[in-house]
TrEMBL record:
Pfam family for this entry, one: TetR_N
Keyword Transcription in annotation: yes
Residue stretches making up the HTH tetR-type domain: 4-64
DNA-binding region range list: 27-46
InterPro entries given in the database record: DNA-bd_HTH_TetR-type_CS, Homeodomain-like_sf, HTH-type_TetR-like_transc_reg, HTH_TetR, Tet_transcr_reg_TetR-rel_C_sf
Stored Gene3D superfamilies: Homeodomain-like, Tetracycline Repressor, domain 2
Source taxon at top rank: Bacteria
Originating species: Paenibacillus thailandensis
Protein name: TetR/AcrR family transcriptional regulator
Keyword terms: DNA-binding, Transcription, Transcription regulation
Length: 210
C-alpha cells in the first residue's frame, strides 16, 4: 500500500512538472527533487523516464475513461450518449488541465531509441469503438442517418480528432473556453449524424439529448 501511494505521488508530481516546465526540462532529477525523494527511490519505482512517461499516458487515459463512463452510460438515447461523450471529454479536460498539458508534451516529444515518436503509432484505433457503437445504435433506432461501409468509423474518427484538437489548443492556451468548445462540437456533430427529418431538414433540437 505504501509503495502504491509513493508511486502515485511520483506520477502526480511528474504530471505537474511536465505541465509546468515541459517534457525536455522534466528530468528524473527534477521530478525527484520536486517529489522530495532521491533518484534511487525514483528508479525503484520506475526503470527510466521513458517508463514513467508510458505510465503517465496510461494513467491519464484510464482516469478519463473512469470520469466519462458513468456520464455516458446514464444516457438512454444515442443522441444523449453522443452528447455526453463529447461533453464529458471536455469536462475532464476542464477538471484536469495539467493532465492534458502533460500528455500533449509527452506524445509530441517522447521518442524511441531510433528517434521515432513513441506514441505516434495510429494503427490501433480501438479508442473509436465506443463511438462507433453509439453511431450504429443510432442508425438502428432511426435517430441517426444510415452509415455505409466504413462511414461510421470515419465519422467516429472525425469526432475523436476534433476532441483531441481541443486538447492541443488547451495546451497552447490555458484560457481556452472549453464550455464554448463543447457546445459547438455537440451542435456540429449531432447535426452531422442525425437522420434528416421529413423535407430534408435535420431532426430538431430539444430534450435531454439535444
Amino acid at each position: 500500500m505504501q509503495q502504491t501511494k509513493r508511486r502515485e505521488q511520483i506520477v502526480k508530481v511528474a504530471i505537474e512538472t511536465i505541465a509546468e516546465i515541459g517534457y525536455a526540462q522534466a528530468s528524473v532529477g527534477q521530478i525527484a527533487k520536486r517529489a522530495g525523494i532521491s533518484k534511487g527511490v525514483f528508479t525503484y519505482h520506475f526503470a527510466s523516464k521513458d517508463d514513467m512517461m508510458v505510465q503517465i499516458v496510461h494513467e491519464v487515459y484510464d482516469a478519463a475513461a473512469r470520469f466519462m463512463q458513468p456520464r455516458i452510460e446514464s444516457e438512454t438515447t444515442p443522441g444523449g450518449m453522443l452528447k455526453a461523450y463529447i461533453e464529458s471529454n471536455l469536462a475532464f479536460m476542464e477538471a484536469h488541465r495539467d493532465y492534458i498539458a502533460a500528455v500533449i508534451e509527452i506524445v509530441t516529444n517522447a521518442r524511441t531509441p531510433d528517434g521515432k515518436l513513441r506514441f505516434a503509432d495510429s494503427s490501433d484505433d480501438s479508442i473509436l469503438e465506443p463511438l462507433i457503437e453509439i453511431l450504429k445504435w443510432g442508425e438502428e433506432t432511426g435517430e441517426f442517418r444510415t452509415f455505409s461501409g466504413q462511414s461510421a468509423r470515419v465519422a467516429a474518427a472525425a469526432i475523436r480528432s476534433a476532441i483531441d484538437g481541443v486538447g492541443g489548443r488547451l495546451a497552447a492556451n490555458a484560457e481556452l473556453d472549453l464550455s464554448g468548445c463543447s457546445e459547438e462540437l455537440v451542435t456540429l456533430f449531432l447535426s452531422a449524424v442525425r437522420k434528416p427529418a421529413a423535407g430534408g431538414e435535420p431532426a430538431g433540437k430539444g430534450g435531454k439529448d439535444a
